[in-house]
Amino acid sequence: DGGITQSPKYLFRKEGQNVTLSCEQNLNHDAMYWYRQDPGQGLRLIYYSQIVNDFQKGDIAEGYSVSREKKESFPLTVTSAQKNPTAFYLCASSTLGTSYEQYFGPGTRLTVT
Amino acid sequence: KNQVEQSPQSLIILEGKNCTLQCNYTVSPFSNLRWYKQDTGRGPVSLTIMTFSENTKSNGRYTATLDADTKQSSLHITASQLSDSASYICVVDTDKLIFGTGTRLQVFP
């Protein structure tokens, strides 16, 4: 899992509540990413950021929000607008440039009931 | 449509045996192809990254091959160990990463 930490490992929430997932890296990477993993599907990109105070939507950004106030931190908020929030969420970071390797955190499993 | 397809979906082998996982892709433009190993409940860990010009790349008992003409890649695992039990994900880099759904490998003693 390199120098990327995600917390908590398991998270339970009631439907209608917003929840924030933490992601911190000490690899001095410029880029950070959030993915969602569902059974039987490939990882899907939610949001990514290449520089502090800037981020872009990925393929499935609806119902999610992010911030990038510090280079080391990229928290993800799952809002009540996300229709199917129960999933395994993975944060990753990388340097910029071609053939960059993405380093993944250990993941947070979110269950919403 | 950019797609990455992996086969088989799951595989069971005995410890010490070899196995080969397949990845076919329809992605354009192509930058590089990656193989990741993901233990259950953990984040993926990179095994190899291959660019267009590379045919083979090894990482210990893991050897990846790439045929850019047929758009196929394989991951060969030699002398499997119990710790090889995991999902193996093929990822193709175009202007973004396209992830396959993975092959679930189980190694039994």
Strand content of chain A: over 45%
| Rounded mean pLDDT score of chain A | 93
The overall strand count of chain B is 11
What composes the largest sheet of chain A? 7 strands, mixed
Global mean pLDDT of chain B: 95
Radius of gyration of chain B: 13 Å
**Helix content range of chain A:** under 10%
Quaternary status: heterodimer
- Beginning-to-end CA distance, first to last residue of chain A: 29 Å
* Secondary-structure class of chain B: mainly beta
**Count of DSSP H/I helices of chain A:** 0
- Poorly predicted runs of chain B: none
How would you characterize this protein structure?
The complex is a heterodimer of chains A (113) and B (109). By secondary structure, chain A is mainly beta. In chain A, 0% of the residues lie in helices and 49% in strands. Chain A is built from no helices and eleven strands. In chain A, the strands form two sheets. In chain A, strands 2, 4, 5, 6, 9, 10 and 11 form a seven-stranded mixed β-sheet that branches. In chain A, a hairpin with a 2-residue loop joins strand 5 and strand 6 (54-57). Chain A is globular, with a radius of gyration of 13 Å. With 109 residues, chain B is mostly beta strands. In chain B, 0% of the residues lie in helices and 60% in strands. Chain B contains no helices and eleven strands. In chain B, strands 2, 4, 5, 9, 10 and 11 form a six-stranded mixed β-sheet that branches. Chain B has a five-stranded antiparallel β-sheet with strand order 1-3-8-7-6, with no helix packed on it. Chain B is globular and about 40 Å long. Chain B starts with a strand and ends with a strand.
